[in-house]
Amino acid sequence: MSVGLVVVSHSRKLAEGVGELAEQMAADVHIAAAGGTDDDGIGTSLEKIMAGIAAADSGDGAVLLTDLGSAVMTAESALEFLEPEQQQRVRMADAPLVEGTVAAAVAAQTGRDVADVVAAAESAGASYAPAPGAPGTTGQEADGGPAGPADGGETASGSWTLINPMGLHARPAAVVAQLLADLDAEITINGVDGKSVMMLMTLGLGPGETLNATATGPDAPRAMELLGTQVRNGFGEI
Question: Is domain 155-236 annotated with CATH 3.90.1150.10?
């Protein structure tokens, strides 16, 4: 089981579309669409949201993502109707609908609890850009593979050329974030947090461009090994 998601939108099609996008990166997460009024008009439905919560909460809890103001109000009303025990594990995130849902789905896929899933969704609202002087090839092997770890195996780096047709788009970004999530290491990829799917997506790395990574911590060498394998395999897309 995992934390489920409920996408609350004024539009049925929008809620379903956002859910469909997030499902591409989180196949094991139940994502319920609660969009539109009871007759599928533009608006929100308390009944649809309640049904979405019931479907998404398998026991580990659920997180609600909303679009516009009245959707927030209706979602808050739905939370008030829950039994006290369920209220403890169902939360609403203050996050942009699309970015927040994607980030929440990836966090839920990696087994995070409700609080962490909410935090992941809410962190998606910020815009990130690569830091000046992002990690380059210093300390990396000439063939583009991971460099040898330093300081007793606590530091490692690597550089690889993206070979899959669309580069580091949404699905590979989610693969990377999920792959690295549980490793005991701080990982930076081209100047951004390697464990954040949204930050990775802001890089916009295309095919033929270089992915540079550095890691510090007990699992740093493992991080470079896993990351290098994924990039060389084209994230399973070739």
Answer: no
